[in-house]
């Protein structure tokens, strides 16, 4: 595991040189919020980093319900007292292993590793505009129907889950990169993903923190290029 920092954001990258899977600890005045939980074996390292920071994890927020983002959820919920687990209202269904589409959703297959045996039930379901400490929820569907991103309102850094990938080339979710194809192959709706990418773009993020790859400072040019590329490939 590799730990990188950007202000009060800690990126924990598991298998960074092979198949990087990230989760994030966001430091608040008296506590930590964990965004995503990485792999089933990641929980000990997550708690170790929190101990070194010296603050308790009081919230776990899931950007979406794919297995590489919820892997350590049960182990963390079982061992951390008084931790609140949150996920979008829509992806709560996926967290229960239910891939069925809801009324009005495009008839596209939900892809990726949807968990089958998660015991943890969320304490809270999220909608756009909800707050968790300094973080504000932004609905960014596309990779999954209920994917969300989190805006750090102190800095305008955005933790995007898999709305973008950085490993293999900075790309909108669904844009295939053969050097790291997994996020694209696991994307539900490419057109929705482009709209969500544009939504993130309008925030003018100071930094992008994705589920796969390094944190990207001052990403404006890369955002523009990746959205143009996604539009060209999707609507050609």
Would you mind describing this structure in some detail?
With 236 residues, the protein is of the alpha/beta class. It has one domain (2-234): Ribonuclease Z/Hydroxyacylglutathione hydrolase-like (Metallo-beta-lactamase, Chain A). 25% of the residues lie in helices and 26% in strands. The chain contains 7 helices and 15 strands. A 7-stranded mixed sheet has the order 1-2-3-4-5-6-7, with helices on one face. Strands 8-9-10-11-14-15 form a 6-stranded mixed sheet, with no helix packed on it. Strands 12-13 form a two-stranded antiparallel sheet. Helix 6 (190-201) packs antiparallel against helix 7 (220-234). The protein is globular. The protein starts with a strand and ends with a helix. The mean pLDDT is 97.
């Amino acid at each position: 595991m590799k730990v990188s920092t950007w202000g009060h954001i800690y990126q924990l990258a598991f298998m960074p040189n092979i198949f990087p899977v990230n989760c994030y600890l966001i430091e608040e005045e008296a506590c930590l919020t964990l965004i995503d939980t990485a792999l089933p074996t990641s929980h000990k390292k997550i708690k170790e980093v929190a101990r070194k920071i010296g603050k308790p994890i009081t919230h776990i927020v899931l950007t979406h319900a794919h297995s590489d983002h919820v892997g350590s959820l049960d182990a963390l919920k079982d061992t951390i007292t008084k931790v609140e687990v949150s996920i979008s209202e829509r992806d709560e269904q996926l967290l229960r292993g239910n891939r069925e589409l809801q009324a009005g959703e495009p008839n596209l297959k939900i892809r990726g590793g949807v968990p089958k045996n998660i015991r943890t039930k969320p304490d809270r379901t999220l909608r756009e505009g909800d707050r968790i400490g300094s973080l504000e929820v932004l609905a960014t569907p596309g990779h999954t129907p209920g994917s969300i991103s989190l805006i750090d309102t102190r800095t305008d850094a955005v933790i995007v889950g898999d709305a973008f990938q950085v490993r293999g080339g900075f790309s909108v979710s669904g844009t295939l990169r053969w050097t790291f194809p997994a996020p694209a192959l696991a994307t539900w709706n490419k057109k929705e993903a482009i709209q969500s990418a544009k939504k993130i773009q309008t925030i003018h993020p100071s930094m992008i923190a994705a589920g796969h790859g390094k944190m990207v400072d001052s990403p404006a040019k890369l955002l523009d290029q990746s959205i143009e590329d996604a539009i060209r490939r999707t609507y050609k």
